[in-house]
Amino acid sequence: MTVLFYLSAVVSAYLLGCSNMAxxxxxxxxxxxxEAGSKNLxxxxxxxxxxxxxxxxxxxxxxxxxxxxxxxxxxxxxQLPLIGAAAGVACVLGHMFPFYLKFxxxxxxxxxxxxxxxxxxxxxLVVMLIVVLVTLITDYIVVGTVTTxxxxxxxxxxxxxxxxxxxxxxxxxxxxxxxxxENYVRIYRGTxxxxxxxxxxxxxxTKR
Length: 208
Description:
It is a single chain. The protein is mainly α and 208 residues long. It has one domain (2-199). It has helices at 2-17, 21-29, 43-50, 52-76, 83-96, 109-119, 121-138, 141-159, 163-179, 181-189, 195-199. The protein is globular. The N and C termini lie far apart (54 Å).
């Protein structure tokens, strides 16, 4: 029965994670984010291509769906210690690999923040502050992303004294790090679009 509960939580969270605000906005704006900028359906690409308002809306949606996934799983099955983390990771993976888009979604960072917020809101707020500071200092969102996905499993696994929790969270962290591999290359080559340049619209794709 326990396996069935975990399976129900994971499948439900994955399907919720497949909901993609960036896709909805890109269709409304007439700009296919899968072919523009970093070519992913996430908040950072939406901000670069569609403007900061769209980026914030997409980010809030992605954070919210992961937060809801974790919260719902913990409320429905409070007796299962890792159910929240399992649901959160499933939601992040659903965002990154939606089945109806040939598994081409976003890079998972905002959803990862939502998962962290539901698992430990105090630490999540600290992480968000660090992300903002690191991003403003470096001008690159990806630097804040790397900082987050490395620190979250380490901190939560250590404070909860749970190697299994550390392992479960590392699944999402590892995939996010891998999905951002092109960003690392662009930073090295000096071609990565910084946040300030993106907000000026220097690289924004316009509808033809």
